[in-house]
Amino acid sequence: MNLGKNFKGFLIAIEGIDGCGKSSLSENLISELNNLGFETVKTKEPGATPLGQYLRDILQNRTFDIDDKAEFLLFAADRAQHMHQVVIPALQSNKIVISDRMADSSVAYQGYARGLNIDIINKINDWATNSIKPDLTIYLKIDYQTAISRVKHRYNKNEQELTHFEKEKEEFFKKVITGFDNIFKIKDKDKVLIIDGTQNQNTIILQTLEHILDKIKIKKKLNE
Ligand SMILES: Nc1ncnc2c1ncn2[C@@H]1O[C@H](COP(=O)(O)OP(=O)(O)O)[C@@H](O)[C@H]1O
Ligand SMILES: Cc1cn([C@H]2C[C@H](O)[C@@H](COP(=O)(O)OP(=O)(O)O)O2)c(=O)[nH]c1=O
Hints:
single chain; alpha/beta; Rossmann fold; five-stranded parallel beta sheet; 5 strands; 12% strand; binds adenosine-5'-diphosphate; nucleotide biosynthesis
């Protein structure tokens, strides 16, 4: 689809706790947008680059202690490489980029849940991303019980090990949920779409797709 020569791509982040439905929504939106003729890139944090795959493995399957600050800096390293190697080139070629998690995940998990200083996390995130922020963030809001039962079901189906984060206790995830709720309460309302993640997948796709198409139209007009 020709979006006009000045359109500098459109960046969408999908955020929420483990099991809220980010990966499924990301796949579904990419396929809907491709069917409509848009050029898209599906990506994620952590692990979208060769460096990121190493970092993701260390973070998810660690067999040794990692200090909370070191943990954040590993996510930030993944983020810097992701922006440099995947996100910026795709936006420069006017693509629609959908990322399963971005910088707000560090604010929720390492800031609100681990207790690291949120101003410092925001500063390092800003530096790592060259201040590039999503045009739209979709927050899939869900309660802990629904999310964890989905994660356990996925784990049984694929016979995978639970990751380091998935093994965290309810108390940890409650803090992550409070974190996301606060982050999106104070963000520019125009750039956030809060969706009830307990709804069925088709309803979620319809609600998000319609919103994305509106926002893309607005950005394109502003760029003409
Ligand atoms: N809206 C939904 N309703 C019910 N189950 C869902 C929904 N979205 C995703 N799932 C299922 O829940 C599990 C976790 O979804 P997933 O997309 O992998 O979540 P995340 O990427 O946020 O961890 C998967 O087995 C998926 O098929
Ligand atoms: C990007 C990011 C992820 N994480 C955590 C959340 C997830 O448990 C884990 C990997 O993310 P992910 O693979 O998206 O897990 P899931 O699909 O189960 O939601 O890393 C952070 O703690 N900080 C971050 O900055």
